[in-house]
């Protein structure tokens, strides 16, 4: 998912989508799960030169990517759609004033209870031994940029820097998530539950492990048969309920928590043992996956 926080930030995306032929390109790529440049040009009845210009506009704003794949005579350029959703904020400049934003590193969890298959890694190495939960307490865990486990949870304390005498009106957590490593399976759902201050606020079923092609930022040393990237998901809770990428997933709202500038805020990513789909969880941070970010947090507040 691409999160556009201002209209100005999204100008390149809007321009890229403002073309019938580029919309046709996206439709064809989605329908066929990727196509070569030659196949696209043939289907659209345009020259490869004309197609290259359109693909570049889509590639520059992150909508599509090009992967070189071996072919009978050299390499073939395969085009693929990288985004599953685009979320656009229409907040006014005035509403942007009362916002605290911060980034939490993947390894900065404050509590955990996890079961193998599990592990942590930085951009250059594993932290401790894979499949040994004891290493989730290793001092080097703070440097982790990816973590995975089969069942259990990791919990983060969200920094609360809301000014004095302000109440919290909305809380958003954005992270790249997917089922657990190692191994990949495109049809391998995982029921990921989100927990705020010990209360489940909603869940999402991740469709599968994405290992058919490398994540854009996944390092070269990472095993090719382990999952490569997840999906960028934004969990938002406000006075109206809990939302995932803008769609309501539960009626649990901030009215149930009464958060303000003095509140401790704890957030968990959980795989419940009794859930229907228990394929584990991978949380991707910088230098892994497709989005090159850790866990982004956004708190909107107003006077009490």
Automatic annotation (TrEMBL):
InterPro entries per UniProt: ArsR-like_HTH, HTH_ArsR_DNA-bd_dom, WH-like_DNA-bd_sf, WH_DNA-bd_sf
Domain of life according to the entry: Bacteria
Gene Ontology molecular function terms on file: DNA-binding transcription factor activity
Domain HTH arsR-type: 12-92
Protein name: Predicted transcriptional regulator
Species of provenance: Anaerocolumna jejuensis DSM 15929
């Amino acid at each position: 998912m691409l999160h556009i926080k201002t209209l100005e930030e999204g100008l390149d995306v809007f321009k890229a989508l403002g073309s019938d032929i580029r919309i046709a390109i996206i439709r064809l790529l989605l329908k066929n799960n990727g196509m070569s440049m030659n196949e696209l040009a043939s289907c659209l009845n345009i020259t490869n030169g004309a197609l290259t210009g359109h693909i570049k506009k889509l590639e520059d704003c992150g909508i599509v990517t090009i992967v070189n794949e071996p072919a009978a005579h050299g390499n073939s350029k395969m085009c693929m759609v990288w985004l599953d959703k685009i979320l656009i904020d229409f907040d006014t400049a005035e509403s942007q004033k009362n916002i605290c934003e911060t980034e939490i590193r993947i390894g900065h969890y404050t509590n955990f209870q996890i079961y193998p298959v599990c592990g942590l890694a930085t951009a250059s190495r594993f932290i401790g031994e894979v499949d040994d939960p004891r290493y989730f307490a290793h001092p080097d865990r703070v440097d982790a940029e990816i973590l995975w486990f089969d069942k259990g949870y990791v919990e983060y304390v969200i920094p609360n820097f809301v000014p004095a005498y302000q109440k919290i009106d909305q809380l958003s957590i954005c992270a790249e998530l997917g089922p657990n490593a190692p191994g990949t399976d495109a049809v391998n759902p995982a029921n990921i539950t989100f927990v705020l201050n010990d209360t489940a606020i909603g869940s999402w079923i991740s469709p599968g492990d994405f290992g058919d092609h490398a994540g854009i930022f996944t390092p070269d040393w990472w095993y090719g048969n382990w999952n490569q990237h997840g999906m960028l998901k934004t969990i938002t809770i406000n006075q109206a309920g809990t939302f995932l990428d803008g769609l309501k997933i539960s009626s649990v709202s901030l009215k149930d928590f009464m958060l303000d500038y003095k509140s401790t805020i704890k957030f968990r990513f959980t795989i419940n043992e009794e859930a229907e789909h228990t394929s584990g969880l991978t949380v991707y941070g910088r230098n892994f996956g497709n989005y090159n970010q850790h866990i982004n947090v956004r708190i909107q507040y107003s006077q009490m």
